[in-house]
Specification:
Blueprint (H helix, E strand, L loop, with lengths): L6 H14 L35 E2 L9 E3 L3 E7 L3 E8 L4 E4 L16 E3 L5 E6 L2 E6 L10 H9 L3 H10 L4 H16 L3 E6 L5 E5 L9 E4 L3 E7 L5 E7 L5 E5 L4 E7 L2 E8 L13 H8 L3 E7 L6 E8 L10 E5 L2 E9 L6 E9 L4 E4 L10 E2 L8 H7 L2 E6 L8 E6 L4 E4 L2 E3 L6 E3 L1 E5 L4 E9 L2 E8 H5 L6 E2 L5
Antiparallel strand pairs: 1-11, 2-3, 3-4, 4-5, 4-6, 7-8, 8-9, 9-10, 11-12, 12-13, 13-14, 15-16, 16-17, 17-18, 19-20, 20-21, 21-22, 23-24, 24-25, 25-26, 27-28, 29-30, 30-31, 31-32
Helix pairs in contact: 2-4
Length: about 475
């Protein structure tokens, strides 16, 4: 099956959509805002059930590669023209397969249980119980209107130029139109869930009772999705979305508070705390006063029980001047919060990165190994998009990414937190560009192997399996995963 899924086409579509101005009216403002007074409402806004189980991450905020590790298999989207398919890499057989067991299914329409329209760039893919879920938020570039309107306003705008560009990439006019049709379905849909039987026999769809923006819902307790959005005026709203029927309930957050992690039966939140209320930064004349108040602001990190509203303070950090004041926060694993520190050897000189870890149980700090061997090294989210048990084990291996400053972001390292050893990842040739490319672990299996990405070609990664310890000791005894043709 032909798979021209090129960057040129993606950019062309993005440009045309931006030109039509179809912004999502439900998207949250990212502007920082005032701290709640001491008497701020802390009780749940609606009755919220206690978490059904331990929380786990289902969306790492990277829309380009939604994947999920279930311990015995990795679930991922496989791109096609105008749609994607939910697939899984079975660790036991080292094979990728479409999550569909319908006899004679061609896997090219919504009759297929694995079918996801569009790019699949604003979805969360995960498992809970014996089901596989695809949560699709309301699109950032949400479109309200018919296909005929969309075709006239978006598709046919500079159509001849688009066809010519597509032809240079081997994409026919018919395929280009099919891409737009899939994108229209994706962009015009309300928020909802595709619920697929684990054996791929069937699926059902539910529409959420409230539209929520992309990457707002990033955690699951096995029965519902959780997350938050920031609304105008600093009002923060916590969400719980039932996996059974898509019903949305809210729980209370303090003004300018974000859900930023989850572990066990608690959510991790962060909020801006100021000595005096922040003026509205959307009013131009308030900008100077707004920045002045932020000079003494701090960001407080708390554990929150979404059912009772009970919160306990973990620590506070100086506000760093960014939108939410916590650009230095990199994630949560095993009760530990990871932060970046930046220092400069001389005024105006280059910054040096280092990372510190705060143990919320012990109340102590620990530094990760420093100095870092490469100034471009940046920590990836220590939490894994995985079921709780395997996520707890996978988080032992911290991943860093970086660049040789020639071929983009192509370097990687793994820190074994248990052994205290930092290992540079081996390099392979990128199948598309010929540039050096780091072989990167992306999942840990139940039996202690890494699933690694070995190369990238025409919008798809190639994968292999290898023992985690052996890989970190330099072994290249890979078992290649047989990918779909």
């Amino acid at each position: 099956m032909k798979r021209p899924y090129c960057m040129m086409l993606a950019l062309a579509l993005a440009a045309s959509l931006a030109a039509c101005g179809g912004a999502d009216g439900n998207a949250p403002s990212a502007t920082a805002a005032p701290e709640a007074a001491a008497t701020a409402e802390t009780a749940p806004a609606e009755e919220t059930p206690a978490p059904a189980g331990d929380f786990y991450e289902v969306d790492d905020g990277n829309p380009a590669t939604p994947t999920f590790n279930a311990g015995d298999a990795c679930y991922l989207l496989d791109p096609h023209i105008g749609y994607c398919l939910v697939t899984k890499i079975d660790y036991a057989t080292a094979q990728q397969q479409v999550l569909c067991s319908v006899p004679g299914c061609a896997h090219d329409s919504d009759a297929c249980p694995a079918y996801v329209p569009g790019y699949g760039r604003e979805v969360a893919l995960f498992t809970a119980g014996d089901k596989v879920y695809v949560y699709h938020s309301i699109a950032t570039m949400h479109y309200e209107g018919s296909w005929e309107d969309y075709e006239a306003e978006v598709v046919r705008n500079h159509w001849e130029e688009k066809v010519a560009q597509a032809a240079q990439e081997g994409v026919t006019e018919e395929e280009l139109l099919a891409t737009y049709r899939g994108r229209y379905v994706e962009q015009s849909a309300p928020a909802g869930l595709f619920i697929i039987d684990g054996d791929g026999t069937s699926r059902r769809e539910v529409t959420c009772t409230r539209d929520i923006g992309p990457s707002a819902l990033r955690w699951c307790d096995g029965a519902a999705l959780y997350g938050s959005e920031m609304q105008a005026g600093g009002k923060a709203v916590g969400y719980r979305v039932s996996l059974a029927d898509g019903s949305v309930t809210t729980f209370a957050l303090q003004p300018y508070e974000w859900v930023t992690g989850a572990e066990g039966n608690r959510l991790l939140t962060r909020r801006i705390v100021t000595q005096t209320p922040l003026p509205d930064p959307t009013i131009g004349e308030n900008q100077e006063a707004y920045q002045a108040v932020l000079q003494t602001a701090v960001v407080e990190y708390d554990w929150l029980d979404p059912a009772t509203g009970e919160r306990s303070k973990i620590l506070e950090r100086p506000h760093d001047g960014s939108t939410n004041g916590s650009r230095d926060f990199y994630g949560l694993w095993d009760g530990k919060l990871y932060f970046e520190e930046q220092t400069s050897a001389s005024e105006g000189g280059p910054y040096q990165r280092s990372y510190s870890v705060y143990d919320s149980a012990a109340g102590t700090w620990q530094d990760l190994p420093k100095p870092l061997p490469d100034p471009t090294m940046t920590l990836s989210d220590p939490a894994a998009t995985a079921l709780p048990e395997i996520a707890a084990r996978q988080g032992r291996y911290l991943r860093f990414h970086g660049s040789d400053n020639v071929h983009g972001e192509n370097l990687a390292w793994v820190l074994d937190q248990q052994a205290g050893e930092l290992t540079a990842m081996p390099m392979e040739e990128n199948a598309d560009s010929g540039a050096p490319w780091a072989v990167t672990p992306c999942a840990l299996t139940n039996d202690g192997r890494f699933l690694v990405q070995t190369t990238y070609h025409e919008g798809r990664y190639a994968y292999a399996l290898i023992g985690a310890e052996a890989f970190l000791q330099g072994s290249t005894d890979y078992t290649p995963v047989k990918m779909l043709a």
